């Protein structure tokens, strides 16, 4: 799209208008707040820039249509975290990452649906209803979930409603939905992106991320949103390299680790097949592929859910009906608290608050929360020791393909669904999910590349190599007639022609 805008093949206004039309007609329930006027204003400004400035001075995101997960506060625009508790909340300030995105010239089409307060793995916990995946199960034509909690972000990118989307990743909420929707999702090192203005779920795990249709696009978006922010106490002051300049697909001499603990029961045979296929491809292209061990992986799920639930119970204590958000009037203050929280929070949020409050209680703090933090340190040390001998780790993004939208899996099964993404989150490591093929049901399958701290450039490069190993997955894109090829020609698309590679 950027190349097309530079060559004046089409204008930013035409590009954004086409996407606004797609968003208005979308059937995925991906957008819950639409901002066409803001997008058009950015598009007009982009066209002015292209008409008077040299190409090398123009941001690669200027005029590019994007969506923002409804977890990021946007000044003057409703931000709900997809909860009844914040149904009518309008922030008076902008989150740092969305501000950086808008200042780069990106055109914000609106706010994207998500699991309530980012708690879920299917995007079925939203107060505004579930998001649908663009992919459909081949055998019975059933709709499948887009994954969560950034399901709206992943579905909107896969459905060609926007070029890229901002998401958040606490235990895999960027990578898992990207895997289910056949797109690319990256979570940078904890602290690379500011958390300021991002509605808190679990503060020691929350990290902004991006979802796009290619690895190179992810690099461009990540360059924009990373950087030090004095408003975030854990923000890293490490310089942010130009990630896109490191992408060449060369993996010669790199050592790729395959952890034996990830070959667990319940993993799809098709995922294992593609895991082995991509590992072989990397080996054929000069990488060394070795088996490694991450012995404390089996504790990752219980440790994660204890820590995130404990931090949830603390963070969500602020929603009491007093200062902002929903208020249910009652005769006494205590009754007002109780009724407000009972009505404002959904089932999954209440479940995690209860677990967290129990884990933090005076009689159980040492037994649960403190012990979970100790084991978290062991999980982190497993990775640190592994990276003394290897460069990257290759694992699946999810144990199976996306499940049916109408299926009602047990909450415990939903927790286990995060088994491959949670360890990197607990350790604060950068990780990227890349589509690697289709299942027999015609649904996307994906692998994940995990790197050492602050090596986003490296995982992007290995992911690019993995990307070239697969047969290209391209959605039909009937929702939006935008060409998704390397040399886009929007003319035929605007006239009603099908997009093509």
Automatic annotation (TrEMBL):
Localization per record: Mitochondrion
Keyword line: ATP-binding, Ligase, Mitochondrion, Nucleotide-binding, Protein biosynthesis
Gene Ontology biological-process annotations: glutaminyl-tRNAGln biosynthesis via transamidation; mitochondrial translation
GO molecular function: ATP binding; glutaminyl-tRNA synthase (glutamine-hydrolyzing) activity
Oxidoreductase keyword on record: no
Gene3D superfamilies, A to Z: Amidase signature (AS) domain
Entries under InterPro entries matching the protein: Amidase (IPR000120), Amidase_CS (IPR020556), Amidase_dom (IPR023631), AS_sf (IPR036928), GatA (IPR004412)
One GO location term (cellular component): mitochondrion
Catalytic activity annotation: L-glutamyl-tRNA(Gln) + L-glutamine + ATP + H2O = L-glutaminyl-tRNA(Gln) + L-glutamate + ADP + phosphate + H(+)
Entry EC number(s): 6.3.5.7
Sequence ranges assigned to domain Amidase in this UniProt record: 14-460
Pfam families per the UniProt record, alphabetical: Amidase
Predominant place of localization: mitochondrion
Job of this protein: Allows the formation of correctly charged Gln-tRNA(Gln) through the transamidation of misacylated Glu-tRNA(Gln) in the mitochondria. The reaction takes place in the presence of glutamine and ATP through an activated gamma-phospho-Glu-tRNA(Gln).
Oligomeric form and interacting partners: Subunit of the heterotrimeric GatCAB amidotransferase (AdT) complex, composed of A, B and C subunits.
Protein known as: Glutamyl-tRNA(Gln) amidotransferase subunit A, mitochondrial
């Amino acid at each position: 799209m950027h190349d097309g805008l530079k060559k004046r093949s089409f204008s930013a206004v035409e590009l954004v208008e086409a996407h606004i039309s797609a968003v208005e007609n979308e059937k995925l329930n991906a957008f819950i707040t639409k901002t066409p006027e803001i997008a058009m204003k950015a598009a007009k400004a982009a066209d002015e820039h292209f008409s008077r400035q040299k190409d090398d001075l123009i941001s690669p995101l200027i005029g590019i249509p994007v969506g923002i997960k409804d977890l990021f506060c946007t000044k003057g625009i409703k931000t709900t975290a997809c909860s009844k508790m914040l149904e009518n909340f309008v922030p008076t300030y902008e989150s740092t990452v969305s501000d950086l995105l808008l200042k780069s010239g990106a055109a914000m089409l609106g706010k994207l649906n998500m699991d309530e307060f980012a708690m879920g793995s299917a995007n079925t916990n939203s107060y505004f209803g579930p998001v649908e995946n663009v992919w459909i199960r081949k055998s019975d034509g059933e709709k499948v979930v887009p994954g969560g909690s950034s399901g709206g972000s992943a579905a909107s990118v896969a459905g060609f409603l926007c070029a890229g989307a901002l998401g958040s990743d606490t235990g895999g909420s960027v990578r898992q939905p990207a895997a289910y929707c056949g797109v690319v999702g990256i979570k940078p090192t904890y602290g690379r992106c500011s958390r300021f203005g991002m509605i808190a779920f679990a503060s020691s795990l929350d990290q902004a991320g991006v979802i796009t249709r290619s690895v190179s696009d992810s690099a461009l978006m990540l360059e924009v949103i990373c950087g030090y922010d004095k408003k975030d106490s854990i923000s890293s002051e490490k310089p942010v390299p130009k990630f896109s300049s490191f992408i060449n697909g060369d993996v010669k001499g790199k050592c790729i680790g395959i952890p034996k603990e990830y070959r667990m029961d319940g993993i799809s045979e098709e995922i294992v097949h593609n895991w082995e296929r991509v590992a072989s491809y990397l080996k054929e292209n000069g990488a060394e592929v070795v088996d490694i061990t991450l012995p404390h992986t089996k504790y990752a799920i219980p440790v994660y859910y204890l820590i995130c639930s404990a931090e949830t119970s603390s963070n969500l204590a602020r929603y009491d009906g007093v200062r902002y958000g929903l208020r249910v009037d009652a005769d006494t203050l205590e009754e007002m608290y109780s009724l407000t929280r009972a009505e404002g929070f959904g089932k999954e949020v209440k479940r995690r608050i209860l677990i967290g409050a129990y884990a933090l209680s005076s009689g159980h703090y040492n037994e649960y929360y403190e012990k979970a933090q100790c084991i978290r340190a062991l999980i982190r040390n497993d990775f640190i020791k592994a990276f003394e001998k290897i460069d990257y780790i290759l694992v699946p993004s999810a144990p199976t393909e996306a499940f049916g939208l109408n299926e009602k899996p047990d909450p415990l099964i939903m927790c286990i669904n995060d088994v491959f993404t949670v360890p990197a989150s607990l350790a604060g490591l950068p990780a990227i999910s890349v589509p690697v093929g289709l299942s027999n049901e015609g649904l996307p399958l994906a692998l994940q590349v995990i790197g050492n701290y602050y090596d986003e450039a490296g995982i992007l490069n290995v992911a690019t190599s993995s990307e070239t190993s697969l047969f290209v997955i391209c959605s039909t894109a009937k929702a939006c007639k935008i060409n998704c090829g390397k040399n886009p020609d929007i003319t035929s698309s605007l006239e009603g022609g099908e997009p093509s590679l």
